[in-house]
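Saturday, quiet lab. Running sequence design on the structure tokens for the scaffold JK sent over.
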């Protein structure tokens, strides 16, 4: 038994007060007030903390963030970037990529609309810097205007980059309902991402707490990931977490 466990068994896990227990309780109080240094998460719902733990043994790796939106705050890959990882960040918005080029100079940052084909598509535009600008007609129904943009695929982006011969460790896709089309433009057999996080928008509900597991399992995106030999391991708010069935890290 480790020495710290022996101390805890002797002093902490006993009824009544003692000096060790009082110091321990004070430490927990200060930690809860963030007086002491605690772990910081940058993404919504702590997804970056989960990815950080998932890849805790991997010193350097390669990620792709589609619909990256913010280089630091509310970003799923910044924590890994701070650890020395690098990757590709993609967004529809020029201002987003401008910020990434300033804060994430080691990454490849690209302004592009990502889909399953290279062609002209409708962009449902709300405003500059909007997190909900999208290529999805269903999600963009309340957009202020519809613009025409040229789309490309993840395969094309990767093949034209310095990462073209590297397997993907981690991919995050948050494109307001266009996630399936983005996935269809990626060669899973070649790039084999070990961790996939996808936003899942169920058009039949208004609030996330109304979600139903049956709707998810009947969705096209879930069936697509199953077909690619992936399994769902977590569902956090409106984000799905998949890993390969034969995962080896």
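Result came back. Writing it out in full:
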């Amino acid at each position: 038994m480790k020495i710290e466990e022996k101390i805890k068994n002797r002093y902490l896990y006993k009824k009544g007060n003692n000096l060790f227990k009082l110091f321990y309780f004070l430490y927990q109080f200060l930690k809860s007030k963030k007086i002491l240094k605690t772990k910081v998460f940058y993404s919504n719902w702590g997804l970056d903390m989960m990815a950080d733990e998932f890849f805790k043994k991997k010193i350097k790796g390669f990620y792709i963030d589609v619909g990256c939106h913010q280089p630091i705050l509310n970003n799923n890959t910044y924590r890994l970037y701070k650890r020395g990882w690098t990757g590709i960040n993609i967004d529809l918005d020029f201002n987003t990529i401008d910020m990434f080029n300033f804060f994430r100079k080691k990454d490849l940052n690209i302004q592009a609309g990502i889909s399953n084909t290279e062609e002209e598509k409708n962009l449902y535009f709300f405003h500059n810097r909007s997190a909900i600008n999208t290529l999805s007609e269903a999600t963009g129904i309340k957009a202020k205007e519809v613009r025409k943009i040229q789309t490309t695929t993840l395969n094309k982006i990767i093949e034209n980059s310095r990462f073209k011969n590297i397997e993907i460790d981690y991919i995050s896709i948050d494109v307001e309902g266009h996630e399936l089309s983005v996935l269809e433009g990626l060669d899973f057999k070649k790039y084999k991402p070990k961790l996939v996080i996808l936003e899942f928008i169920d058009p039949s509900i208004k609030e996330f707490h109304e979600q139903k597991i049956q709707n998810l399992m009947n969705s096209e995106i879930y069936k697509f990931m199953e077909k690619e030999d992936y399994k769902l391991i977590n569902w956090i708010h409106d984000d799905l977490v998949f890993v390969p069935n034969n995962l080896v890290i």
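Notes for JK: The chain has a mean pLDDT of 91. Strands lie at 62-66, 86-91, 108-111, 113-114, 120-125, 145-152, 170-173, 195-199, 230-236, 239-244. Ask whether to fix the surface positions before the next round.
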